[in-house]
Give the backbone structure.
Amino acid sequence: MGEEVFIIDWIQLNLTGRYRAIKELFSRGLSTEEIISFLGLEKEKLLALRKRAEQEYKRSLDLGIDLIPISSDEYPILLKNISDPPALLYVLGEKVWLKDNFISVVGTRRPTRYGINATRIIVSRLVENGIGIVSGFAYGIDTVAHTEALHGGGYTIGVLGTGIDVVYPKVNRGLRKDILESKRGCLISEFPIGDKPESWHFPRRNRIISGLTQITLVVEASLKSGAMITAGYALEQGREVFAVPGNIDSENSQGTNQLIKEGAKIITSGDDILEEFNVIPKLTTIRLPELNEEEAIIWNILNEPRLEDDILNISGFDVSRFNIIITRLELKGLIERLPGRMLKRKDG
């Protein structure tokens, strides 16, 4: 009963949203009861919050949700050190932050082919070398980062802008299942069970994404975007911000290029990040997947780097078919683009 009351106290504190005050009072060694009293809430408000907290506790037991207050040894250390950490975390899945180093990877909800490929290449290299991935579970770059982490046998954390039980976005229902069933990841939220997506939830969630790691990588982002808000939080929290450069005429690269101008480290490969973790990269040999006839034609033409127009002319494909084949080879990680509309193999 004592543990139940203790957790309900923390749920009640979390529901107040007074995170800075709660952290300060907790750091002074005050008990949950003393913190609740110190916040000076009206009696009716306190009673309403208490009733809601008791309901939250029962629902968490029914749904198998772990409740981790800031007082717990299981609470992520890096997150605890920010100025306004959540008083309580709702967690589904494996508490993977206890296992490995992690990096936050964020970006636009409308990525270009370039952004998708860059995310896959960088994340696959990181997880291959034992680095886990934190992201915001949004459609776009976040989805690619989480998915690539799992495909590479790595760990991933999805930070939600809804209640932990709410599937959002709906398109990520399968990804949610993969994270939970793989036992190589978890979903976390500060929002009460059942909370629907609200516009103000997501900027607030972003401080947790950056707060969980020492490094935030921005892959693609416009100047006014959630990814840039996350980068701003990272800087406020004294964490490092890295960015993938992009085309100067792409809206999705305006934010990342601006970050680089302001001092963010340029990232062009996963190895750039591994250096920050003092990890010696594993030597890998790319094993080619089975190529169909069309892909094999392009692959054989690319026995050396060539201009895209030259490859098109040699192949004999029409432009639309050629672009489809090139995209497939890029998505398989077999070719890459160079400046000047050049293409090359990525077989070492």
The chain is about 45% helix and 15% strand. The radius of gyration is 23 Å. The first strand starts at residue 66 and ends at 69. The chain has a mean pLDDT of 91.
